[in-house]
Specification:
Jelly Rolls; 8% helix; binds 2-acetamido-2-deoxy-beta-D-glucopyranose; mainly beta; 29 strands; eight-stranded antiparallel sheet; 2 domains; 13-stranded antiparallel sheet
Length: 385
Amino acid sequence: MDYLRKVVVLLLVHQYFGWLTLAGKISGAEVINFANRQPSWAPIMHMCANLSDITSIRSFFEFRTLDPEGTIFYGDTKEGQDWFVLLLRDGTPEMQIGKANILVSVKGGPKLNDGAWHKLELRSEGKYVVLEVNNKVELVVGLESEQTEDKLTGTIRLALGGMLVNEKRLLQPFKPEMDACIRGGNWLNISTLWDTDASWVLRPCFPEIKRGSYFPGTGLAIFNTSDLPGVETEEKGITVEVSGSYHGTILSLQSPGFEYILSEIEGYKENKDLTMELKEGSDSALPLETSKLTLTILKHSLMLNGYTVLQDESFDILSRWREGMLLAFGGVPGEIKDSKGTHPLQGCLEKISIQGEYIDLDQAFFKHISISSHSCPAKALNELT
Ligand SMILES: *[C@@H]1O[C@H](CO)[C@@H](O)[C@H](O)[C@H]1NC(C)=O
Ligand SMILES: *[C@@H]1O[C@H](CO)[C@@H](O)[C@H](O)[C@H]1NC(C)=O
Ligand SMILES: *[C@@H]1O[C@H](CO)[C@@H](O)[C@H](O)[C@H]1NC(C)=O
């Protein structure tokens, strides 16, 4: 635990030192990237307006994601007494509304996490809240109670990528973190500037995206293996599969007295064989024909694409897996500088699975903010220039 805490503190210090900025103002019509932040319920930006200045409670924007779950848009009146939130769950839009002691949740419409831009519009029409997707009404929620007042007074607050009320007030919790982009926003038909969160930095969105997790070469994601799919039989062990196009350190596995680093040293190029360097025991290099790696973890050995790459009769790796090792994708925990000659991963991991289960980097207990969990640039970034 101590070791782990040290590693995380070190990584956080590094992370914030790199990205320290002050809260600022931004126009709601900008291209806004929701990714690249710590998991948080706090919005990346919010604004407040007088209801008396507003002629229509209607907002629309374009939205693009490959992420199945996360917060999109929040609004409230009466300082959060009445609130609503628009989110994605399983890729499908969902609205939750809290008003005068009523909690409502509705879900429906098309799946939006296909990587294409979609136009979303939300509006309030008296007792109804309406969601349109691509100019088609998809969800309508009607809400009335003896306590609701028809005349709206006071202020209205809007927020993107998070909420301004405590998440305990939700009818159905969800994971707030969202790897998405918004553009062309029109919020209540007013041009009020939004306040941005101090820990958030506006980064450009990739022009086009494809499925995968993008590592720009500045950070890693760490799991405790006890949170990951477990051992079914000792004969089969644990199978970790990774595919994509990348260079640098793909993954590392650590436990006191044990370290294994899987690192690609030659630099990945299309149509070129990968050479993997194996950094435990032997320094043998292993030629691999594809960018698809299968690491099999057995009780006393590790196998990479069918080759034994490590053997240690004195060490029970599967027991350590159950108890909790550090499995990092994209680097080696604790190594900020490449002191061992390894480089943080740069590129796209299109698929990461363990025991056949898809691994979502949003579930990692540490993920560097530079990583986009659910999107990679459709073209390699050096091809874009
Ligand atoms: C709302 O109106 C009040 C008084 O009419 C004013 O003091 C306040 O600054 C306004 N707030 C915003 C956000 O415009
Ligand atoms: C939106 O704002 C513009 C200019 O401020 C105004 O001309 C227009 O009528 C407004 N639209 C609505 C629907 O209120
Ligand atoms: C992993 O999680 C287990 C169970 O929660 C915990 O006992 C262990 O200390 C954790 N391992 C590390 C390296 O933090």
